[in-house]
Amino acid sequence: MFTTVTTIWSREMRGFFTRPGGWLILLAATVPAAVAAGWMATLVARGGLALRADEDPVSQFLGPNIFLMGTLLWLAPLLTMNAIADDRRRGTWELLVTSSASAMEIVVGKFLAAWTLISVCLIPWPLFLSALRVWNGKSREMAGWIPWFDGPGISFDAGLFWGGVIGLLVIAGTIAALGTLTSAIARRPLFAGFATATVLALLLATSLLPRVLDQWRVPADRYDWIQAVAVWGHLAEFSRGIIPVSRVIGHLSASVILVWSAGQLCRRADG
Amino acid sequence: MSLVVEQLQRRYAQVWALRDVSFDVPQGQIVGLIGPNGAGKTTLLRILSTFLSPTAGRVCVGGFDVAADPNHVRERLGYLPEQLPSDSVLRVGEYLDFRARLKRIDRRRRLVEVDRCLALCDLKESRHRLLNQLSQGFRRRVGLADALLGNPPVLLLDEPTIGLDPVQVRRTRELLAELAGLTTVLVSTHLLAEAELLCERALVLLRGQLVSDVLISDLQSQEEIELELAAPADVVGTFLRTIAGVTSVEASSATASTSRWILRLTPGTPREAIASACQSQGFGLREFRGRESTLEEHLLKLILHRSREAA
Lengths: 271, 311
Fold this sequence. Notes:
Strand order of the largest sheet of chain B: 6-7-8-3-9-10
Largest interface: A-B, 23 and 28 residues
Structural class of chain B: alpha/beta
Shape of chain B: elongated
Strand content of chain B: 25-35%
Strand order of the largest sheet of chain A: 1-2
Oligomer: heterodimer
Helix content of chain B: 25-40%
Helix content of chain A: over 70%
Distance between the termini of chain B: 38 Å
CATH class of the largest domain in chain B: Alpha Beta
Largest sheet of chain A: 2 strands, antiparallel
Number of helices of chain B: 11
Strand content of chain A: under 5%
Radius of gyration of chain A: 21 Å
Structural class of chain A: mainly alpha
């Protein structure tokens, strides 16, 4: 099992990094992170805010901000849509599943590759946040013309950083599993990508629903269940430095169920 | 038996792709799977390769049931599907290495196996070329090299020589002939002359049914003569059937004054006797020649017979 999964995983990784398109996606995923970091650096420089758990919106850098959510909305469908649907389209799926590898092993390999790639494309976010350790957003001119850091870096709560990173990793796993499932259902990669984007948009809408219901003064205990599927809300929890074990288990379980369903679907669709 | 197929049925929605197909193949035999388009050849190969599951019936490869034990079946199979191998980032050598990993060939043997299969399919010089930049014929050879990886006891080949140049067609035939006796090979092909050259036996599928299972040597040993007589068909036909040693008479073509016939004889019947019998009746003998029955004729007869039945 392990050998097959790693073989599929390494093939997918190689497929991404040896194509110029892969690097373009990575670059495109870095741009919103850079814009968000620039925005935050400006905010910090002007207000002298310290990055602490209770200080919104700066603490939301690794949380549900518009740049990060927007990135995930296009990144996840793009990186997962080809996982299985493209092999079916090209007819190479038949060769894959008639080797000694089972459909489940192949699906797991492809899911892990999608998870890794989404995570790799999100690396700029914690990297930019780490940059604030040495830069407080202010600059001065050294020797009259060279821009340089002005003053010490910002010290911020490590819990925020690691909570956000773990949250992103866990949620990236769920999204990768969702993309793998839609790629297993769809016969064309484009349909798979569209389906993943639609589901992610619905999850975003679900996350906003509690706020709307709160405005309408609906008692909170009536929409508790929405919190369980409000993925962006979960990201907000993680980015506040909280790592709720139940959420982690919930996301990992959801990933396992989605990947298992994708494997079963592949077996049945062929059979 | 290396391959056992019993009462196999496969249905796609409302269409029966295979109906009550039964046959078995002993280890080391090369068998041709022939039939027109839509006969069910690819479906049969896909079931044997475990890609599709049967709707009903039992299929065993190397003693393992394809439905109950697909993993063991796959370990014993080399499969060249209709679809050519395709990969935009891997080179030929890397692709075969990737396939060898999926086939769980251990690390030490993998390099040797890849080299062996590259050499067998004349691909050593193309080892470092990108797979997707190869011609169709080259990719077919890569597919064949992939099927041969690990020296599997059973090979399933779907049109293995389509797109190959004449030299490679001959090389592939020689390669498969070398495997005879050791590896069981089931070859689906439209090239009937190739099936005659390559296979010991032919299975004919028509509309999902196995309508003939014949040894090529039996087909070729059937004694037939073709003759043209200067006499109308209605006069000659009845007479030809009465000649000793004639087992079947088939009108090939006729005009008002001549008729052409194909006679099948019992082995050992002297051909001169047929000629003299015709001449004794005063039928002018315009042409007389012995002929071997070909797989193509066999298939065409079966198709004709089926369409008559259907009509």
